[in-house]
Amino acid sequence: MRFGTVWFAKLPVRTYVIEAQTLFVPYLSRMLERAGLSVIETSAVLNEKSLSEARPGVVFVDIDYSERGGMTLLCGIRETLERSPDATGAPHVVAYSSGGADETRRASCYISGATLVYSKDASEDELVAALRSSVGTTVNEADAGASPPRERLAKRRRGA
Predict the structure, then answer these.
(1) 153: Cβ–Cβ under 8 A, 6 or more apart, which residues?
(2) What are phi and psi of 153, to 5 degrees?
(3) pTM of the predicted model, to two decimals?
(4) pLDDT of amino acid 85
(5) pLDDT of residue 98
(6) Domain boundaries, the chain
(7) What single string gives the DSSP state of each residue in the chain?
(8) Residue 18's beta-bridge partner residues?
(9) Which residues are CB-contacts of 70 (< 8 A; sequence separation ≥ 6)?
(10) pLDDT averaged per 10 residues in sequence order, the chain, 160 residues
(11) How far is CA 96 from the centre of its chain?
(12) CB–CB of 59/94 below 8 Å?
């Protein structure tokens, strides 16, 4: 160790998973870990309090089986993250859907708050590679609990 040098450990990106079919949670967790994401919490429904407290860098959500409806769920996630008292940024909201290839559905997901939309038709290897390239797999230790910059959320709202 050298004095005067700051060393940063690379840590996996903190990921919050919302999946109504609990049978698939272990599979999704393993897949997300292969992509370099660390699953910190899972929930079958949107739990605003736990999502706000978790401060994830990624929210991974299966929008197909939500009681609230997929687009309503995405809007609820966006609103929860915006109201979070210590919201320092806008995490990636990854929507995972069987209709992910349909352009109208993809557009609806983006309008409702998703930053990324993936189809369940993709293979696990394709999804892992896509997540690695679009989300990134590690962050500096100093930023491990923080989310990406808030400006991204503001840009998304303006449609830029």
Answers:
(1) 81, 82, 89, 90
(2) -65, -45
(3) 0.74
(4) 65
(5) 84
(6) 10-158
(7) --TT-----EEEEEEEEE-S-GGGHHHHHHHHHHTTEEEEEEESS--HHHHHHH--SEEEEE-TT-TT-HHHHHHHHHHHHHH-TT--B--EEEEEETTTT-HHHHHHHHHHT-SEEEETTS-HHHHHHHHHHHH-SEEEGGGTTSPSBTHHHHHHHHT-
(8) 43, 61
(9) 63, 64, 95, 97, 109, 112
(10) 47 87 91 91 91 90 84 91 70 83 86 90 88 65 38 52
(11) 10
(12) yes
Burial (Cβ within 10 Å: 0-12, 13-18, ≥19) of residue 4: exposed
CA distance 60 to 40: 11
64 token code pair: 């197909």
Token pair listed for 30: 């393993």
Determine the pLDDT at residue 31. 92
Contact indicator for 144, 14 with CB cutoff of 8 Å? yes
Contact 137, 36 (CB under 8 A): yes
Beta bridge partners of 7: none
Which pLDDT score, from 0 to 100, does residue 88 have? 55
On whether the 10-158 domain is CATH 3.40.50.300, my answer is: no
Sole residue written with tokens 């929210």:
59
Measured between alpha carbons, how far is 53 from 86 in angstroms, rounded to an integer?
Answer: 9
